[in-house]
Amino acid sequence: MKLVKRQRMLIFLAFSLLLSGCAGQGDDAGDAAGTRFFRMDTDISITAYGRNAEEALTDAQSKVAELEKFWSVTDENSDIYAINHSQGSPVNVSEETEKILSFALDMAKQTDGALEPTIYPALTAWGFTTGENRIPDKSKLEEILKNVGYGNVHLSGNEVTLPDGMELDLGAVGKGFAADEVSKVLKQAGVISALLDLGGNIQLIGTKPDGTDWKIGLRDPFGESYMGVLSISDRAVVTSGNYERFFIGEDGKQYGHILDPATGYPAENGLASVTVVAEEGKLCDALSTSLFVMGQEKAADYWRENQNFDMILLTEKGEIYLTEGLADKFELEPDYGDVKVERITKTADRKGE
Ligand code: ADP
Ligand code: MG
Questions:
Q1: What average pLDDT does this structure show over 43-56?
Q2: How far, in Å, from the CA of 195 to the mean position of ligand 2?
Q3: CA nearest ligand 1 atom 10, residue
Q4: Cβ–ligand 1 contact at 257 (below 6 Å)
Q5: Distance from the alpha carbon of residue 103 to the mean position of ligand 1, in angstroms
Q6: Ligand 1 in reach of 116 Cβ (< 6 A)
Q7: How far apart are CA 342 and CA 130, in angstroms?
Q8: What is the predicted pLDDT for the residue at 298?
Q9: Among protein residues, the one whose CA lies closest to atom 19 of ligand 1
Q10: Ligand 1, residues 289, 298, 311: which to mutate, most atoms within 8 A of Cβ?
């Protein structure tokens, strides 16, 4: 069975606008520079403005390479590989791995296990780790789930202990976390305006160089065009959806790569995608995956309880639900004028959800 990997929903529309927009910039904006490379199993592109933008991008690229080396599941020299092959013995990890793991475990707790950093054995059973997809036996999945549970990961300072048989995977938060770290590197180097795209995880530093918001296109998961545009600055924007990476089983059904840790089966609850907007990429990444697992109602409740982010939920019926903070930042494209867009408000109104 072949794995289908589609383009991410969020692709920035701003690129060409941005490049044309840089002509005529005053000296304050400094140089513009861009780079594209493949790391963390994904295409990464960065456009940066500011003095030393070119050098800043070299530093940024090194940072991504460094983080990938720590977090790769397959690189035999990575921290994660060492943990996954420790057979229950304690492993000392880098500061970066300690930070991301501590964050991932926190988010797992906060989301009541919807984010599950130890889900890897179940992903393997479905073949999502190799691309050789298959539908596993229910009994096999149940057996595997006995070795899944973030509560059994012990982190003390930089020492990690993982019970034998369990495996860690930071795939659901790594790109968001990396985007935060890379943004810090860029800012330190004097970058005042930048757009980072790590395989669809978007991170924005400042506004566009001309002082206006960046425009982020929200792609129609069922077609090739944009449903709407988000005008936004200084934020991270991350989307998760099961249509991005899935396979069609022998039963003709579509199986996506985001698993519900409670069952071991792909999350399936009427959502096509979840887009999260917040200051930090790591929070966006952790939440986009876990809110997708939770489904519409629980995701809305989670937002009401926390409110340190905004989100856009897209249902399989093609409806859009967005939190109040994005109401005046999101605009439908004319062709999608009849799409239903509902606000998620602070007080629950079940009618609209
Ligand atoms: P992507 O990394 O593909 O852009 P996500 O951030 O949503 O998208 O991460 C999904 C990846 O996380 C999956 O491909 C899989 O490796 C892993 N994963 C799947 N389900 C879960 C889950 N419930 N909790 C944590 N990680 C998951
Ligand atoms: Mg994620």
A1: 94
A2: 19
A3: 172
A4: yes
A5: 15
A6: yes
A7: 39
A8: 97
A9: 258
A10: 289
pLDDT tens per residue across span 93-134: 999 999 999 999 999 999 999 999 999 999 999 999 998 999
Check pLDDT > 50 for residue 16: no
Give residue limits of the domains in the chain. Answer: 2-68+173-352, 74-168
- Ligand minimally distant from the alpha carbon of residue 6: 1
Q: Comparing 2-68+173-352 with 74-168, is the CATH topology the same?
A: no
The Cα 260–Cα 113 span in angstroms is 9
pLDDT, tens only, 211-234? 999 999 988 888 888 889 999 999
CATH topology of domain 74-168: T-fold (1.10.3980)
Do the Cβ atoms of 205 and 192 come closer than 8 Å?
A: yes
Q: What is the pTM assigned to this prediction?
A: 0.92
Of the listed ligands, the closest to the CA of 200 is 1
Structure tokens at 262: 């409670």
Atom of ligand 1 at shortest range from CA of 175:
2
Domain 2-68+173-352 sits in CATH at: 3.10.520.10
Instruction: Give the nearest ligand 1 atom to 289 CA.
Output: 7
Q: Is 171 in the pocket of ligand 1 (CB under 6 A)?
A: yes
C-alpha 110 – ligand 1 centre gap (Å): 17
